[in-house]
């Protein structure tokens, strides 16, 4: 009874789902209490007057928290993470965590919030679930991230001296899915199309 579940244990997904639900309930509760102000990406989709905004997204063991950059939201997010830690014993991996701000947020506040949350600012080439996430400062060179990943795969496969049939199998299995995943998140410029083909 003393030891935990091993990786691959049939109970692991259920246990993980329970923990993810505890986290989601924490964020929703704080939002309903008016302690966490969510993000409203489009007034046609989410009406700010309804009080229901986007606060977080969970996928497997990745968490993306989205909120207005205010001291109240900062403290609320920290309190939810502390509550989850107290209930489950799980910790946030701060080395893998980062924070990204709108260009409208003052630099002093960015530093303060990063310090309070113990999180480093995200780099300009920030990724979530393998897809490059862009802010207002979108650069044309960053739009070719998918092509760069495909080129790296091709170079490795050429170096492995695979037969042409082996390379074609890998291309069909791996490279064809790369742009599809990214295109669900953002539209590609027309200039990228010839590189993908």
Automatic annotation (TrEMBL):
It comes from Acorus calamus. It comes from the Eukaryota. This is Reverse transcriptase domain-containing protein. It holds the Pfam family RVT_1. InterPro entries: DNA/RNA_pol_sf, RT_dom. Residues 1-133 form the Reverse transcriptase domain.
């Amino acid at each position: 009874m003393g030891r935990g579940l091993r990786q691959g244990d049939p109970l692991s997904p259920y246990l993980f789902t329970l923990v993810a639900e505890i986290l989601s309930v924490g964020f929703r509760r704080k939002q309903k209490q008016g302690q966490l102000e969510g993000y409203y990406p489009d007034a046609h989709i989410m009406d700010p007057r309804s009080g229901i905004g986007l606060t977080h997204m969970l996928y497997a063991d990745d968490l993306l928290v989205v909120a207005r950059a205010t001291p109240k939201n900062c403290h609320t997010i920290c309190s939810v993470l502390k509550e989850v830690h107290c209930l489950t014993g799980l910790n946030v991996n701060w080395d893998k965590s980062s924070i990204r701000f709108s260009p409208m947020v003052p630099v002093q506040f960015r530093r303060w919030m990063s310090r309070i949350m113990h999180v480093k600012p995200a780099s300009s080439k920030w990724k979530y679930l393998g897809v490059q996430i862009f802010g207002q400062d979108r650069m044309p060179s960053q739009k070719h991230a998918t092509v760069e990943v495909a080129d790296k795969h091709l170079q490795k496969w050429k170096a492995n001296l695979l037969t042409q049939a082996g390379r074609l199998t890998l291309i069909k299995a791996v490279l064809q899915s790369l742009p599809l995943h990214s295109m669900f998140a953002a539209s590609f410029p027309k200039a990228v199309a010839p590189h993908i083909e």
